[in-house]
Specification:
Length: 535
């Protein structure tokens, strides 16, 4: 039996020991060129008394146990990890409701309205934008509505390749239930292990595919969402031109318009054929140009991940100072080597050389294997969230952020983001490292993803982080990027999101909120404010 950590990524049992983290601190110092504060252990959690007693109607499926409340307090971005590590769980919700069916979800919404409490829909709690943390000011308390009991694949329509899946199902549970049918949803965000279908839909998550099916949006066929004023359920359709899409308002609604309880999702046969290669580039600019050409070639690789040299180093894929492009194609029915050959041709003509591969594989049973650099990358990719928690425990200031922009703007956007972050790291921390990779690419532009690590000063890490994060957000906005490609808005990105969206759209969103949630109980503070638009 494993226990989820109240603050770190994953299970408590997987958090490295003090001795292991002390070793890691030494290795990192050699690589980063600056020291950490040294590893230490987390402080015991301090959870305030609840403001709200469990209402009798919710008692059969609710808890107010302090550690349960601590575990539902924060997402998993830097400020969350830092406060959790320090034992500060002041914003913990007052109670956790775990409804077993739609009727109990509706009951939570009704009771919350009666007692004047806020309700936070909760999936896996992997938000990195303050999506599930609510101070509850102006409310009698905060109810965390955890959907973990709605975790089943309810129905599969094989002829239409679709599955009806409950919103609280975590990534591995979805895949485990589809695997016996040789089907897959094939949505693998890095947070796959601890995030849910409902969370993915509510945040428009980005998954495994680098092209075409990048966001969960493309996989949604219809959604069922319970709102305080009624059930919002769209028709199951492969496509429709009937007015604005109801699903598009649910996608990205971040728990502030209703509670998603299930969705019909587009699934696919599990891939059988796979072809992959790793291309290295001495120059970042040449690698970017190769990816631009690939994104417009119509080849649509499943993986087209470009790592700059720091990113390749951090993920232990390459230590020779080159940028790497991880390319892969996959299909349930067709060998992919001819597509890979074409792609390699484009990449090498743009200045790359084949570092690893080409590899071809055919799955007989179980998961498709990956080879060489791709395998090293995959392992490091999945370990990265654990490493992130360890870095926070060593006093480092560390975070990731992402965006998307059109190709014409990318060189300036990238240069200005790197400059702004470096300048702030220098000012706040004396030094620091920033790396970049492309997570997804489109014919009209890339989605770059950045990681920064800087030395923290004891007790000042939060203000150091804040200054760097703000500088990054401003640089993104001023240079034509979006404040988020797939991490969502939450409370953290509101400042820039409010400037990014058209004002009439903000008013329309406000009107939708008022109509669906007139008591303003659902996830107050994300996407839209009650007073701001009313005023
Ligand atoms: C290490 C790490 C790696 C990550 N990698 C990726 C990645 O590769 N791609 C990506 O897109 N994101 C990534 N994320 C961000 C995060 O995992 C996603 O935003 C994810 O979709 C959140 O899902 P969740 O189930 O954990 O939702 P939660 O964190 O529980 O909630 C997120 C938001 O969705 C709302 N919500 C949750 N469930 C429901 C529901 N049933 N109905 C209505 N609203 C709901 C919440 O109220 C909240 O606003 C990563 C995060 C971490 C910590």
């Amino acid at each position: 039996m494993h226990t989820r950590s109240p603050w770190a990524w994953g299970h408590i049992e997987r958090f490295p020991s003090l001795a292991d983290r002390a070793d890691l601190a030494l290795q990192l110092e050699a690589f980063l060129g600056f020291p950490s504060l040294g590893a230490s252990d987390p402080a015991p959690p301090r959870v305030p008394e609840p403001r709200l007693a469990i209402p009798a109607a919710l008692a059969p499926f609710s808890s107010a146990e302090p550690m349960d409340r601590a575990r539902h307090c924060y997402g998993r971005c830097f400020p969350d990890l830092l406060r959790g590590f320090q034992g500060d769980f002041r914003p913990a919700p007052d109670l956790i409701a775990r409804p077993r069916n739609d009727e109990e979800v509706a009951l939570v919404l009704q009771v919350a309205r009666e007692v004047g409490a806020a309700v936070i829909p909760y999936g896996g709690g992997s938000s990195v934008v303050g999506g599930i943390e609510c101070a509850g000011e102006g409310y009698s308390g905060v109810i965390c509505l955890d959907l973990e009991r709605l975790n089943r694949v309810l129905e599969v329509d094989r002829s239409s390749l679709s599955a009806r899946i409950q919103a609280g199902a975590l990534g591995p549970a979805i895949e485990a239930q589809l695997a016996p049918l040789d089907l897959t949803l094939r949505h693998f965000p890095q947070s796959f292990e601890f995030s849910t279908l409902g969370g993915w839909i509510a945040t428009r998550a980005g998954g495994h595919f680098a092209t075409l099916y990048t966001h969960i949006d493309e996989l949604v066929q219809s959604v069922r969402m319970l709102t305080p004023t009624g059930v919002w359920e769209s028709c199951r359709l492969p496509a429709s031109g009937a007015g604005p899409s109801p699903d598009r308002l649910v996608l990205g609604s971040e728990g502030c318009l209703g509670v998603i309880t299930e969705a019909w999702m587009r699934v696919r046969p599990r891939p059988q054929f796979r072809a992959s290669a790793t291309i290295s580039f001495m120059e970042w600019e040449a690698a970017v140009e190769a990816v631009r050409q690939l994104s417009q070639s119509g080849l649509n690789p499943a993986n087209c991940r470009l790592l700059d040299r720091r990113e390749a180093y951090l993920h232990r894929v390459s230590f020779d100072g080159d940028c790497l492009l991880l390319l892969a194609f996959e299909s349930p029915g067709l060998p992919q080597s001819f597509l890979l050959e074409e792609a390699i041709g484009i990449a090498t003509a743009a200045g790359g050389s084949v570092k690893d591969g080409p590899h071809e594989s055919r799955r007989i049973s179980g998961e498709t294997t990956q080879e060489g650099s791709a395998e090293v990358w995959k392992k490091a990719f999945l370990d990265a969230p654990y490493l992130f928690s360890s870095l926070v425990s060593m006093g480092l200031v560390v975070d990731t952020f992402e965006t998307a922009c059109t190709w014409d703007r990318f060189p300036t956007l990238h240069a200005n983001i790197v400059r702004a972050v470096r300048d702030q790291m220098k000012e706040q921390c004396g030094t620091g490292l920033i790396s970049c990779r492309f997570t997804h690419v489109y014919p009209d532009g890339p989605a770059p993803y950045y990681t920064f690590i800087a030395p923290g000063r004891a007790g000042e890490q939060m203000s150091q982080w804040k200054a760097i994060k703000e500088a990054a957000g401003e640089a993104i906005h001023k240079n034509g990027g979006t404040i988020t490609h797939h991490h969502a808005v939450g409370r953290m990105h509101r400042n820039v999101y409010d400037r990014e969206r058209p004002e009439p759209f903000a008013r329309a969103l406000h009107a939708a909120k008022r109509e669906l949630d007139p008591g303003w109980i659902l996830n107050p503070g994300v996407l839209i404010d009650q007073k701001k638009q009313d005023g």
